[in-house]
């Protein structure tokens, strides 16, 4: 049975001002979800993803938290215009930045709005497991820290199991590799969750790898494309030929296959306007289903294994591996 990847109107029940630059939207959205997942919003025809700050295990309501990006189209519009009672269009929850079945400690590093999925994960890990949980947040100054009181409340409720440390850039400079290593401490077997601005995430990832963490221990949620993506392209072979058939809005369009081109690029070359947002494999906005042939994704930070098994593909990352391929976008 195909998953529902379409947009649904949901009502905003409440808007909570978290800091001068960040709001939480409490949504009347009865969707099942996992801690760490996100919704994609369609706002003024533009698509953007926002992670849940709520936990399905501890919160009765589904909440997303949005931080203003200077000059940003959607974050500013949402913060300046949306109010309780408004309708917004969202997808069902998606994403793979979720808890794993393990008893190992959870150690998280987050910067700015990166706290959003981390708070969701932390609340679920504390409520449903016996794992130790530690979070290092990095923010410009004390006024910029989102969820300071929620984190303090969790630390009070789970003494000995939960620790939060706040790093402030203005008095202390940016987080350093030494600070990352020190915070990782002796938790050699931990799962490390990382979410924040790209330079912060790169520093944390490199510091953890140099400290001895295995790549499989580090889970990263990218809000913006990585500077060096996409890596791992298939070698171009001009002799391959073949046809990419794209079904969009119920109409079939056949495009000659160009080796090394993604399905999204092929669709655009055909003059089509399929949905997309991040173009980095993070948001699932560009999802379509392969009904004939096969594709492999350069990166996938959004689709779960069972969705891939059903033929779903991120078209911004999917390169055909068969000469002929048919992909169907949901209406
Ligand atoms: C899976 C996923 C989950 C996300 N979850 C959240 C969340 O929980 N809360 C949240 O606030 N945001 C989240 N984001 C980021 C969000 O989707 C938007 O990218 C962000 O709000 C900026 O959109 P915009 O339209 O305001 O800015 P745009 O108009 O797209 O961008 C304006 C400028 O800002 C830069 N920029 C874009 N995003 C950021 C950013 N996050 N930080 C710094 N510079 C940026 C762009 O490169 C561009 O130069 C998430 C993104 C993804 C892919
Ligand atoms: S556009 Fe975001 S995953 Fe493809």
Which descriptors would you attach to this protein?
binds flavin-adenine dinucleotide, iron-sulfur, Elongation Factor Tu (Ef-tu), domain 3, Ubiquitin-like (UB roll), alpha/beta, globular, 6-stranded antiparallel sheet, 5-stranded parallel sheet, binds FE2/S2 (inorganic) cluster, Rossmann fold, 3 domains, single chain, 21% helix, 331 residues
Q: Give helix % range.
A: 10-25%
- Write down the CATH topology of the largest domain: Rossmann fold
CATH class of the largest domain: Alpha Beta
Order of helices and strands: EEEEEHEEHEHEHHEHEEEHEEHEEE
Strand segment tally: 18
CATH architecture of the largest domain: 3-Layer(aba) Sandwich
Helix/strand-derived category reads: alpha/beta
Distance between the termini: 16 Å
Tell the overall outline: globular
Give the percentage of residues in beta strands.
Answer: 25-35%
- The largest beta-sheet arranges its strands as 4-3-6-1-2-5
- Fourth-level CATH superfamily of the largest domain: Nucleotide-binding domain of ferredoxin-NADP reductase (FNR) module
Average pLDDT confidence is 92
Taking pLDDT < 50 over at least 5 consecutive residues as the criterion, the unreliable ranges are: 228-238
Total helix count?
A: 8
Bound molecules: flavin-adenine dinucleotide, FE2/S2 (inorganic) cluster
GO molecular function, one term: oxidoreductase activity
Cofactor: FAD
Domain 2Fe-2S ferredoxin-type: 242-331
Organism: Actinomadura craniellae
Give an account of the 3D structure.
The chain folds into three domains: 83 residues, Elongation Factor Tu (Ef-tu), domain 3 (Beta Barrel); 116 residues, Nucleotide-binding domain of ferredoxin-NADP reductase (FNR) module (Rossmann fold); 86 residues, Roll (Ubiquitin-like (UB roll)). The longest helix is centred in the middle third of the chain and has 14 residues. The chain has a six-stranded antiparallel sheet with strand order 4-3-6-1-2-5, with helices on one face. The relative contact order is 0.13. About 3% of the residues have low confidence. It contains eight helices and 18 strands. It starts with 7 loop residues before the first strand and ends with a strand. It is of the alpha/beta class and 331 residues long. The structure holds flavin-adenine dinucleotide and FE2/S2 (inorganic) cluster (FES). The site of flavin-adenine dinucleotide has 24 residues, from strand 4, strand 5 and helix 1. It comes from Actinomadura craniellae. Keywords: 2Fe-2S, FAD, Flavoprotein, Iron, Iron-sulfur, Metal-binding, Oxidoreductase.
